[in-house]
Design a protein that fits this description.
The complex is a heterodimer of chains A (187) and B (592).
Chain A: H1 4-33, H2 35-38, E1 42-44, E2 50-53, H3 93-108, H4 117-120, E3 130-131, H5 133-137, H6 140-147, H7 151-161, E4 162-163, E5 174-176, H8 177-185
Antiparallel strand pairs in A: 1-2, 3-5, 4-5
Helix pairs in contact in A: 6-7
Chain B: H1 3-31, H2 39-53, H3 63-86, H4 103-114, H5 124-127, H6 130-160, H7 170-196, E1 206-219, E2 237-247, H8 253-261, H9 282-307, H10 310-337, H11 340-343, H12 360-373, H13 388-399, H14 410-430, E3 435-436, E4 439-440, H15 443-468, H16 471-475, H17 482-496, H18 511-541, H19 557-591
Antiparallel strand pairs in B: 1-2, 3-4
Helix pairs in contact in B: 1-9, 1-12, 2-7, 3-4, 3-6, 3-18, 4-18, 6-7, 6-8, 6-18, 7-8, 8-9, 9-10, 9-12, 10-12, 10-13, 10-19, 12-13, 13-17, 13-19, 14-15, 14-19, 15-17, 15-18, 17-19
Classes of the chains: A mainly alpha (187), B mainly alpha (592).
């Protein structure tokens, strides 16, 4: 039983090192070197007001905005205080009905052809800030109509907003919905 | 799979393989007490730790004392976290004023983090204070991983040492593992993660306005708190406008790095590594997958170095890679084929439910096989929403016993138990004396290996049986039919094998899962751990038998293939009936 003392003391020492010194050191360096990222990559509108984080999606539903992916967070879509997915199983009838309703809502805005999966299937976090480039391009006619602006012009803005795969090959190309919508507000 | 995804996957595995040798030999030096480039900084810290805690680093331990020290230390971990969870409202660094856990949930969570499982039956951003995250959960992430790793080292010493009962000093191994391996790597990668956008601060949650405000329907309650109903019996709802939202903050990056590196998997947020603040870019995703596989992979090389033949380590790594890459291919196929019930509604044929756009299919699927092949259990996609055969892939990787890279340390020692079984069975078939790494395999080794392999499997099957006849356990299912069975089976497999991921629709915060889950996690962690230490004790006392013509070479491809077969056959014999009733039935329903 001579190991009881080291068990308790080592536990306390590791709590101080791993639970105190380590996170404080990381916080100190992170705040000094990467302050924007460490504090949530906040974005501002044209007036300099903070309007969200470029990493956290928002529930746009007005036709004049680009729409994000469906979100299954509690209470309301894109609730950052309750991240999570739908956890719907692939044969769940209620889930299949929901997807059908989402497709219909898109068709009602004049969308034809196959619908990009990301636009009708909810993300894992419920906060996905991105949609696929196809999902953005497909919304151009609606947004152009609602804003009364030229489609070609809008097409260029969307194309410019596409983020490529990182280093050209990691991940997927994508469009940040909040950033794109803030871009539209500058028009 | 498009060419970019193929390239990403190939680059990933090359990066992993390139890192295995340097890290593996570094870890061997650490546990053989040699000097390394970190010694000038760390040796004074190390000596100070021994002086304060009264550890004599020269003191060697037999297997019983080594196991006893491990258990005492883990008991201290459990008790402290249990108390912390019950009293977090009284402790500092709680800007959101989160309340204490119930005792059942605190018990489950404390065992979960002590056993390196990180099963989470709570919502991180709503239930846990910064103090608990940092001084509780993050500390457990370090030392539970270190516990697994040093047990594996003691087992390797059992093979290496001759005619001794000594396996090393648990306190020294634990200290060196934490100071020289886990802390420096976590330090570097947490900063890399911050550069990608993972947050690291102590601010209170921020209220930010929405660009376009929204609203939601909330059921109206009467004075007693019961939902109001209208004349037709429908609930009365009121529309609540939402003009601003609350964005959670916290020291995430420091926890994220060790969460992956230590194959812990407990997310800061409910969405775990799918949350953009935990895993914001494709590169952060790439790094997190790498961190999950890094130590378990490198440990095979450490094993090779310590037993004096690195090909022994490569053989085990080959088995792991073979099964992991096959699993990835099956999952990638299933998810890119999509869900026919969704596709026929006019949708592109890939399954994006529960996945994030930035990670793409390959980045999600590689994470999924890495996190379930190891006992990590972090997720960057929701496994519950995978296609049936897709979902069977992570489930099967867990059921194989967490050996495909496996948990930090626990993966290797469980794999060694499988290797012993494989040697024994082949010995029976070809009439050779079973020997592994120059040690004769006898009754005691066989008993212990079987205990290691069967504990989790038996626990899963018995508990799943009990769950199916328990109304509250069944009521926790989120999806109807065969998928509900998959949810329960996955959950119990996850706790019994110390993985921690879930088919997360399952409502796990009920007494049934909290309490039986606690039991399963405890058995799944400590029965195999004690069994392998007992085996190491008996192996260390044996003499070394030099290889002869009659010895089965265990460092060559034929043995690796044989070992793969043994693993797959044991897994299939144990679990095929259960898998047939869950994912396979659901697949047939989906395509018919």
């Amino acid at each position: 039983m001579k190991d009881i003392k080291p068990a308790i003391l080592l536990f306390i020492i590791f709590t101080i090192i791993c639970g105190g010194i380590y996170p404080l050191l990381v916080t100190g360096i992170a705040q000094a070197v990467f302050p924007r990222q460490a504090n949530g990559s906040l974005v501002t509108d044209t007036n300099g007001k903070v309007v969200g984080s470029s990493l956290i999606g928002q529930p746009f539903s007005d036709p004049k905005y680009f729409w994000p992916r469906p979100s299954a967070t509690a209470e309301f879509s894109y609730n950052p205080a309750a991240s999570g997915g739908s956890n719907a199983g692939p044969t769940n009838p209620a889930y299949l009905r929901t997807v059908g309703e989402r497709v219909k809502a898109l068709r009602d805005t004049g969308v034809t052809g196959p619908v990009p999966a990301d636009l009708v299937q909810a993300s894992a976090s419920g906060l996905d800030p991105h949609i696929s480039p196809e999902a953005a391009l497909l919304q151009i006619p609606r947004v152009a109509r609602a804003r009364g602006i030229d489609r070609e012009k809008l097409h260029k803005i969307v194309n410019d907003s596409i983020e490529d795969r990182q280093f050209g090959f990691i991940g997927s190309p994508r469009v940040n919905v909040l950033v794109l919508n803030l871009e539209l507000a500058r028009l | 799979m498009n060419p970019y995804e193929l390239l990403q996957t190939i680059v990933f595995f090359i990066t992993l393989l390139v890192l295995i040798k340097p890290l593996g030999s570094y870890m061997a030096r650490i546990f053989q007490g040699e000097r390394t480039f970190l010694s000038p900084i760390m040796t004074p810290c190390e000596n100070l730790v021994y002086r304060i805690s009264g550890v004599n680093p020269e003191d060697e331990m037999g297997w019983r004392r080594y196991a006893g020290a491990m258990l005492l230390f883990n008991l201290a971990l459990f008790v402290s976290l249990f108390v912390m969870l019950l009293t977090q409202h009284l402790l500092p660094l709680n800007p959101q004023k989160v309340p204490p856990f119930t005792w059942q949930l605190a018990l489950n969570t404390a065992i979960s983090f002590t056993t390196n499982t990180n099963w989470q039956a709570y919502v991180g951003e709503q239930a846990v204070s910064y103090f608990t995250q940092m001084a509780g959960l993050a500390v457990h992430n370090f030392v539970s991983a270190a516990t697994g790793l040093v047990i594996a080292i003691a087992v390797i010493r059992g093979f290496v040492r001759r005619k001794t009962s000594q396996l090393g000093n648990f306190w020294v191994d634990l200290t060196r593992c934490t100071l020289y391996i886990l802390l420096p790597i976590s330090m570097i990668f947490s900063l890399v993660l911050v550069s990608q956008g993972v947050i690291q601060n102590f601010s209170a949650y921020r209220n930010l306005p929405l660009v376009q405000s929204t609203s939601y329907d909330k059921p109206k309650l009467d004075d007693k708190g019961a939902p109001l109903k209208d004349a037709k019996g429908n609930p009365v709802v009121e529309s609540v406008p939402v003009k601003e939202v609350q964005i959670p903050m916290g020291p995430v990056a420091s926890q994220e790095a060790i969460k992956e590196l230590g194959t812990n998997g407990g997310g800061f947020f409910n969405a775990n590594s799918a949350h953009p603040f935990e895993n914001p870019t494709p590169l952060s995703n790439f790094i997190e997958i790498l961190l999950i596989l890094l130590i378990p992979g490198a440990l095979t090389y450490t094993f090779g170095v310590m037993v004096g033949n690195t090909r022994q380590g490569w053989a085990l790594l080959g088995v792991m890679l073979l099964i992991l890459i096959t699993a990835f291919a099956v999952l990638q196929w299933a998810e890119s084929s999509g869900n026919p019930l969704v596709v026929k509604q006019g949708i592109q044929s890939i399954n994006m439910e529960g996945k994030e756009v930035r990670n793409g299919l390959a980045g999600s699927n590689l994470f999924t096989v890495a996190t379930t092949g190891t006992s990590c259990g972090a997720v960057n996609s929701m496994h519950d929403s995978l296609t049936p055969l897709g979902g069977m892939v992570p489930l099967s990787l867990i059921l194989l016993g967490e050996i495909i890279f496996g948990g930090v340390g626990s993966g290797l020692y469980t794999m060694l138990a499988f290797a012993i079984i494989a040697v024994f069975v082949s010995g029976l078939m070809i009439g050779r004396t079973p020997e592994y790494l120059g040690k004769k395999i006898e009754v005691r080794e066989m008993w212990m290996s079987i205990l290691v392999i069967l504990t989790a499997g038996v626990t899963v099957l018995i508990l799943s049986g009990i769950a199916m006849i328990t109304p509250t356990a069944v009521a926790s299912m989120a999806n109807p039919g065969a998928h509900g069975l998959s949810e329960v089976l996955y959950g119990l497999a996850s706790v019994s094998n110390n993985n921690g991921s879930a088919f997360a629709g399952l409502n796990a915060n009920v007494n049934f899962y909290n309490l039986l889950g606690s039991l399963a996690m405890t058995l799944g962690r400590y029965v195999p751990a004690i069994a392998v230490l007992a085996m190491a004790g008996s192996l260390a006392e044996k003499k070394f038998i030099p290889p002869s013509l009659g010895t089965l070479p265990t460092d060559k491809a034929p043995f690796a293939l044989w070992l793969t077969l043994v693993i797959l056959i044991v897994g299939a014999l144990t679990f095929f009936p259960a898998l047939a009733l869950g994912p396979i039935v659901e697949h047939l329903m989906m395509v018919s």
